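Worked problem 6 (solution included).
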Amino acid sequence: MAAKTDPAKLARQARNLIEEFNRVVLDDAKDLSAPAVSDAVQALKSLVDRLPEGPSHPASALFLMGGR
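Solution. The predicted structure is:
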């Protein structure tokens, strides 16, 4: 059986990638093309659209286990 991935580890990895994204965008802002900015914005929009999924599932699992 494969080991389960630690949700906190995934959240830290996501945080680190967002920090890296911020550095890249801020360092290269004037050199980014309009299509590159558009692609980045669309990817971030997709990320934000998925954010409610993550927090709602662990909360549901805790509720079902009796925690609040």
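Discussion: Residues 7-65 form one domain.
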